[in-house]
């Protein structure tokens, strides 16, 4: 029998549809690969991109030349543009504002062939430090309500350029998915003086069946009400609202957890398309008429990463209801992810 | 410059991304077609399906034999099962219930090769009458909070069987997408004593640039804050909360409007994958301890159909924010849809 499960963090029901393909092999298909003759993200082709806004270079090399390990550039085809003032107005019953924001690309390593799962923990730590640097910089811009960092891997997950990269989009309104999580956490904290995400983590740890990996610093688990098959959440055990404030040591541990999770996903589902999204507290600009940041507010949020393979399609039912249909029980997914042999390559 | 637009009905922002492919030809690609050797929905193969729960037959033929024009059968692989009592319980911070519901398939015509856009208005009217009959029947089941009728066309829109069919899923909780619309309408009505969907329709009619078709009974328009390219809404001019209560004449007019919209979509985008979803008032079971229906409540909802081609992918940004990125301005989409030549086949 199928089951409906309620996610108190996303405030939504999920349908676990038992009748659908659900073991890893049911999801493994030949996937279209993008082949690029001249990749603009490749080492030595820096002049093909927009001017870099950040890079990690250890050899004293100059911007927009070789010598980088991680490189951040404005997206050449930005969804939202950085120039201009916000212009907000009504349009009858609708509202409209111009598309002010930032859209950047984090090129994760110079080598076209190496995906994030192939990078060493040290190399992944550099990527995470680039995320931190960009978050801290863009937070100073009071036009932005949220800064989303995410990664698309594989064509079905929206990656049109195969060279491994993440993206950052700063938006002038708080996105619905973010405000739902924030309000869930705030309401919970106001009632209980505890963090919802801490409590969810503790419940998953006590239950145990969804835990994929626990190294004492970070827990990786498949949430009980996962909306997608093989969805994973990477959560720090230490309550912390702000990813940008992590120490070097915490970043190093996260890099290990992230690499391990990516390798497990790749191993179990044979390099599936996936997205990951960093959820961290937004900058707040609403107090005393000048920019304030979330770290001056009660610490009721808890940053985390959502890692979601793209295995199923959105159809009319999902569109019309907002439900997701997950064909794999999260506890089954966790078992496959836990037990996979990471020493076998394919 | 891109633009953000707020949809007061779905309570969400949409990003109109001007930098992306946006003319119809940018979306036209070769699509995978499903070829079936033995289609279970075909005329003469009635014994291959589950037992029909409804059919339109005019020749006195018996159930589960040939002679039908429209046929409704339980889905052989239901997402939710019809048998049993609801079992709802907490699971720590989560909630869980067993997957009680109904999942039916409406086979729209006997011929494997004819899609809904190929059917005559009379034939489409029969399909719509089947929707009405199933809604009225399943509403009597007090376990169901909502009954969604929708159609998937094309593999990318979730249709794994190409023989033209719609689906019905009855669910034991009110889906988020439905409750958002219901509450938007209720709040608006409480404040203004007017219907939000009537007022949105009037604004679109006054503006005019999004109107695709208006025959006096039904208006087809591309909503100002469309979240998908070439999204259309089919709205009755006469305020009515309940699709199931439409008269024969109203059904006939809707069949003409629906056929015309499907033909326009097919013509402009060369048979794109699409979904449509019927939004109508849910059964209400909460009063006086016995089933009551929405038509005993203030008429603050207004039924309509959403028709959405599946042209873009969900990637990390959409997943992490809940925003949709629409690469085509709705007013441009409306122009293409209005001006397309329906006499040309392809």
TrEMBL record, chains A, B:
GO MF term (any one): nucleotidyltransferase activity
The name under which this protein is listed is Galactose-1-phosphate uridylyltransferase
Q: Which InterPro entries match?
A: ADP-glucose_phosphorylase, GalP_UDPtransf1, GalP_Utransf_N, HIT-like_sf
- Supply the source organism's classification: Bacteria, Pseudomonadati, Thermodesulfobacteriota, Desulfuromonadia, Desulfuromonadales
Where does the source fall among the domains of life? Bacteria
Q: Which keywords, in A-to-Z order, does the entry hold? A: Carbohydrate metabolism, Nucleotidyltransferase, Transferase
What range(s) does the Galactose-1-phosphate uridyl transferase N-terminal domain occupy?
91-173
Whose protein is this, by species? Desulfuromonas versatilis
- List the Pfam families: GalP_UDP_transf
């Amino acid at each position: 029998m199928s089951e409906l499960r309620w996610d108190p963090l996303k405030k939504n029901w999920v349908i676990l549809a038992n009748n659908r393909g659900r073991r890893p092999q049911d999801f493994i298909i030949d996937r279209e690969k993008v082949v690029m003759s001249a990749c603009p993200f490749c080492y030595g082709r820096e002049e093909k991109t927009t001017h870099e806004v950040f890079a990690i270079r250890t050899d004293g090399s100059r911007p927009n030349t070789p010598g980088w390990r991680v490189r951040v550039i404005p997206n050449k085809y930005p969804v939202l543009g950085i120039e201009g003032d916000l212009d907000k107005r009504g349009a009858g019953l609708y509202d409209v504002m111009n598309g002010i924001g930032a859209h950047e690309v984090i090129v994760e390593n110079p080598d076209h062939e190496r995906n994030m799962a192939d990078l060493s923990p040290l190399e992944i730590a550099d990527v995470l430090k680039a995320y931190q640097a960009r978050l801290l910089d863009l937070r100073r811009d009071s036009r932005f309500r949220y800064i989303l960092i995410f990664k698309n891997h594989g064509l079905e997950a929206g990656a049109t350029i195969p060279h491994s990269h993440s993206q950052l989009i700063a938006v002038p309104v708080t996105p619905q998915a973010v405000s739902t999580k924030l309000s869930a956490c705030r309401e919970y904290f106001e009632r209980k003086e505890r963090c919802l995400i801490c409590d969810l983590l503790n419940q998953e740890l006590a239950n145990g069946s969804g835990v994929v990996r626990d190294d004492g610093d970070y827990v990786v688990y498949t949430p009980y009400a996962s909306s997608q098959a093989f969805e994973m959440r990477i959560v720090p055990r230490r309550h912390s609202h702000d990813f940008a404030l992590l120490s070097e040591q915490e970043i190093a541990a996260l890099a290990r957890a992230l690499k391990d999770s990516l390798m497990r996903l790749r191993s179990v589902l044979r390099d599936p398309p996936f997205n990951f999204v960093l959820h961290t507290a937004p900058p707040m600009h609403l107090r005393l008429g000048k920019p304030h940041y979330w770290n001056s507010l009660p610490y009721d949020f808890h940053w985390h990463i959502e890692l979601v393979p793209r295995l199923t399609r959105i159809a009319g039912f999902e569109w019309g209801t907002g439900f997701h249909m997950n064909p794999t029980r999260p506890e089954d997914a966790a078992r496959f992810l836990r037990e996979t042999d990471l020493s076998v390559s394919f």
